[in-house]
Write a structure and sequence with these properties.
The structure holds two protein chains of two kinds. In chain A, β7 and β8 form a beta hairpin. By secondary structure, chain A is mainly β. Chain B is mainly β. In chain B, the strands form two sheets. In chain B, strands 2, 4, 5, 6, 9, 10 and 11 form a seven-stranded mixed sheet that branches. A four-stranded antiparallel sheet of chain B has the order 1-3-8-7, with no helix packed on it. In chain B, a hairpin with a 2-residue loop joins β7 and β8. In chain B, about 40% of the residues are buried. The chains are: A mainly beta, B mainly beta. Chains A and B meet through β5 and β10 of A and β5 and β10 of B.
């Protein structure tokens, strides 16, 4: 059974940092594209960052470029998102998801990031 | 970026009746490899998104056959042949053809 479990969310002040983790199991993680999405409360879904199976290519949406860093550890079956210089508008539930052929078939349950003073 | 526009944004449907959601993209979703990477997701209250349909019309494993997807180019449709109580939630179309992937605003499906 495919499982994706996010952790690391919490309350942080504007300008602060957080590191999100996603533990994967039930599939060949090292062969899979992985992506972070987010969803502000009561709002729609937004893609944040994407990483190739071997970690050699990373893609970001413009709103987080230079502030967020996606990474992975294939030996640990783990995906990460480093969030720096956080802003109030980054407040959202962050989901990790497995990418397959330009779509995303499995999603985690999400972890909430709240940026507030 | 590709803009995805759904309609309606709210859809009350009587149990047992059909439902239809439209999704339009600002650019053609045909990829250079010839495929069209349009997916549909269901998000029940308090849950994470669940994929229902990929590449326009392919149903995911475990998805009831009352769900179907169709369309081409820039116009796509999700149809539910008979509304059931468990179908309540928000439905999103999503394109994966061009970076960044983008979603429609969501259609809230509820029981009339």
């Amino acid at each position: 059974e495919v499982q994706l479990v996010e952790s690391g969310g919490g309350l942080v002040q504007p300008g602060g940092s957080l590191r999100l983790s996603c533990a994967a199991s039930g599939f060949t993680f090292r062969s899979s594209w992985m992506t972070w999405f987010r969803q502000a409360r009561g709002k729609g879904l937004e893609c944040v960052a994407n990483i190739k199976p071997d970690g050699s290519e990373k893609y970001y949406v413009d709103s987080v470029k230079g502030r967020f860093t996606i990474s992975r550890d294939n030996a640990q079956n783990s995906l990460y998102l480093q969030l720096d210089s956080l802003r109030a508008e980054d407040t959202a539930v962050y989901y990790c998801a497995r990418g397959v052929a330009f779509s995303w078939d499995y999603w985690g349950q999400g972890t909430l990031v709240t940026v507030s003073s | 970026d590709v803009v995805m526009t759904q309609s309606p944004l709210s859809l009350p449907v009587t149990l047992g009746q059909p439902a239809s959601i439209s999704c339009r993209s600002s650019q053609s979703l045909v990829h250079s490899d010839g495929n069209t990477y349009l997916s549909w997701f269901q998000q029940r209250p308090g849950q994470s998104p669940r994929r229902l349909i990929y590449k326009v019309s392919n149903r995911d494993s475990g998805v009831p056959d009352r769900f179907s997807g169709s369309g081409s180019g820039t116009d796509f449709t999700l149809k539910i042949s008979r509304m059931e109580a468990e179908d309540v939630g928000v439905y999103y179309c999503m394109q994966g053809t061009r970076w960044p992937p983008s979603f429609g605003q969501g259609t809230k499906l509820e029981i009339k």
